[in-house]
């Protein structure tokens, strides 16, 4: 039997035990991660013998008196997490319950173990196929390097000739400030200060849990690129990054990614580039020899007609204002 539990009803010890026993034991679904990115998160739970055997995180909120479900910032994938004790057909059942509970669902992203089940449900739900890029670090560095494209090898040599300084840090603030100055204006709608504060809090907790790795490159003492990685359960997630024009010209992020590949070569770790559906960025990640892995995102809109109209008008105005304000800067 599946139970919907509000945040205060969840047993987080049982929750985390279920996540860690699942095939897709992802950091994003652990209670301490969700507590930062979606403080009032809820969940669907299948319980057996006093233990949670299947869970589905629901980072839902209420807007205009209607329940909304969306993917929190800094959270690549969620979905249904199953164990050996999970019931047959549990993924389908939890998806059905989530759609019934939330009138509006925007870009809720499922994990890879959900993919085969969701493939069969595309005719019933608005499930959008997406891809990330994986690079399996199971070979010596030189073997991994051979899989780089010719252009990536050339750009790596340029980065090495640029004499960039590269160092690890426990200070997230330079990365945040760098992103604010050089990247934020390219983000549709900008970035709220609360989102940056969330990243500060998340980085602090990740440091406490020992899963964060932050690397900067500098030229002349000034940061020109920074990359934040999350290391958990054999996966290194490329979680957040920033580069200015100099960092792009000197290939600072190429230097950092190559360093991560060098550090973890032969360990069996998987480097997840968390690739967005943007051709230029996907091409960049593919140039390291990374392959595509499919997952699904869910959309659902059962809002009343008048709410749909108001929302559509707001989004149209929003995009028009953004296009006019940013066109001169990019």
From TrEMBL:
Record carries keyword 4Fe-4S: no
Highest rank taxon of the organism: Bacteria
Keyword Cell membrane on entry: no
Xref: InterPro entries: Acyl_CoA_acyltransferase (IPR016181), BioF2-like_GNAT_dom (IPR038740)
Domain (BioF2-like acetyltransferase): residue spans on this chain: 154-273
Entry keyword set: Transferase
A GO MF label: transferase activity
Name by which UniProt lists this protein: GNAT family N-acetyltransferase
Species this protein is from: Pontibacter oryzae
């Amino acid at each position: 039997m599946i139970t919907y539990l509000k945040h205060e009803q969840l047993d987080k010890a049982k929750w985390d035990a279920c996540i860690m026993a699942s095939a897709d034991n992802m950091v994003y679904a652990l209670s301490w991660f969700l507590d930062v990115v979606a403080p009032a998160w809820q969940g669907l739970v299948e319980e057996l013998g006093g233990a949670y055997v299947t869970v589905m995180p629901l980072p839902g909120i209420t807007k205009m008196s209607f329940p909304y479900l969306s993917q929190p910032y800094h959270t690549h994938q969620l979905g249904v997490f199953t164990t050996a004790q999970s019931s047959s057909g549990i993924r389908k059942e939890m998806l059905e319950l989530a759609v019934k509970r939330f009138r509006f669902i925007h870009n809720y992203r499922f994990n890879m173990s959900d993919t085969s089940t969701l493939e069969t449900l595309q005719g019933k739900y608005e499930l959008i196929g997406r891809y990330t890029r994986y690079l399996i670090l199971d070979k010596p560095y030189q073997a991994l390097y051979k899989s780089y494209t010719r252009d990536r090898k050339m750009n790596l040599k340029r980065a090495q000739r640029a004499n960039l300084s590269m160092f690890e840090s426990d200070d997230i603030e330079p990365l945040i400030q760098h992103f604010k100055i050089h990247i934020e204006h390219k983000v549709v709608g900008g970035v709220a200060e609360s989102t940056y504060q969330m990243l500060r809090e998340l980085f602090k907790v990740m440091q406490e849990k020992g899963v964060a790795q932050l690397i900067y490159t500098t030229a002349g003492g000034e940061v020109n690129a920074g990359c934040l990685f999350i290391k958990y359960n054999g996966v290194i997630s490329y979680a957040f990054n920033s580069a200015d024009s100099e960092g792009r010209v000197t290939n600072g992020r190429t230097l950092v990614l190559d360093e991560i590949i060098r550090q973890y070569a032969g360990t069996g770790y998987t480097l997840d580039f968390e690739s967005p559906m943007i051709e230029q960025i996907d091409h960049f990640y593919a140039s390291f020899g990374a392959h595509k892995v499919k997952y699904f995102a869910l959309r659902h809109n059962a809002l009343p007609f008048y709410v749909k109209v108001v929302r559509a008008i707001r989004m149209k105005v929003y995009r028009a204002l953004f296009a006019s304000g940013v066109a001169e800067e990019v």
